[in-house]
Amino acid sequence: MDVMHSLQGLGSFLAYFAGALAAEAVFIAIYMGVTPHHEMRLIRDGNTAAAVSLGGTLLGFTLPLASIIAHSVSFFDFLIWSAVALIVQIVVFLLVSFALGGVPRRIAEGNMAAGTTLATASLAIGVINAACMTY
Predict the structure, then answer these.
(1) Model's pTM, two decimal places?
(2) Gap between the Cα atoms of 83 and 81, Å rounded
(3) C-alpha angle 90/28/37, rounded to 5°?
């Protein structure tokens, strides 16, 4: 095989890679807009609970995103299902916040139990979400 043959998929790779990075950026912006605590400021201040919760949530979004890339039939399909994955993670945050009460406040206070619970719920739902997107 020659190099040119091997690089035939480079355009698609670059499109999906750039799309995934853009989806991650949009997700982070929307997620941080929905949460009442300021993750980046808290993380800069050394708040481990905020770092764990944001990291788990980001991974919970990235898992289905990877599945979408692997199984989408078009770039438009990728965009639609990325939006679904984003919505699912926002709903996870809202449900955990409702179920446990005061999660954002406790994360802002550095409560690792709250941060870890949110991260774990986000990851668990992300795995299920990714599996559901393998159609």
Answers:
(1) 0.91
(2) 5
(3) 75
Say if CB 69 and CB 134 are below 8 A apart: no
Does the CA dihedral 112-116-117-118 come out positive or negative? positive
Name the residue with tokens 């043959």: 5
Q: Specify the pLDDT at position 1.
A: 58
The one-letter amino acid at 46: G
Distance of alpha carbon 46 from alpha carbon 50, whole angstroms? 9
Closest CA to 116 of 51, 27, 59, 42: 51
Mean pLDDT, the chain cut into blocks of 10 residues (135 residues total): 80 95 98 93 97 98 96 93 97 95 95 97 97 86
